[in-house]
Amino acid sequence: SPVDIPSTAIAAGSFTTLVAALTAADLVSAIAEPNGPFTVFAPTDDAFAALPAGLVECLLEPDNKGALSAILTYHVVDGQVLSTDLTDGMMAPTLQGEDVTINTTDGVVINDSATVTYADITTSNGVIHVINAVLVPP
User: Fold this and answer.
1) Please, which residues bridge with residue 103 across strands?
2) Which structural domain, as residue segments, surrounds residue 32?
3) How do residues 83-134 score in pLDDT, each as one tens digit?
4) What distance in Å separates the CA atoms of residue 25 and residue 5, rounded to the nearest whole number?
5) Where is the FAS1 domain (predicted)?
6) Residue 60 and residue 124: Cα distance in Å, rounded?
7) In whole angstroms, how far apart are CA 106 and each of 69, 81, 115, 117, 138?
8) Which CATH number fits the domain that encloses residue 19?
9) Backbone angles phi, psi at 120, to 5 degrees
10) Predicted TM-score of the model (pTM)
11) Is residue 138 part of a domain?
């Protein structure tokens, strides 16, 4: 049986930066059971590594917890949204408060910047879609 979103991300092994960021922002319990269901657009370690040098380390500092939290919650949508539920031009409200825009013309692309590379990893409290870039709130 599936485990919750944080446990699934830890077990996958390709989200160590995301897990470290969630921990630094005190958001692990927020997206863990019994909370949810949630849809998480999860950037891989490679996606975080593609950010400008020093940015991740800077965001992980305690003084930047607010900014880090805003970035992370911008990757989470309330409710379970499977890839089959996504439509072209769909606006999905994030926990951060701003919407992400879904484009389905050529695969699934979020905000014209992050491509879903693996979809529909089901967890006990939602679903994870793997993305190849970090989303930045407007």
Assistant:
1) 109
2) 5-131
3) 999 999 999 999 999 999 999 999 999 999 999 999 999 999 999 999 999 9
4) 16
5) 2-135
6) 28
7) 30, 19, 9, 12, 23
8) 2.30.180.10
9) 65, 45
10) 0.96
11) no
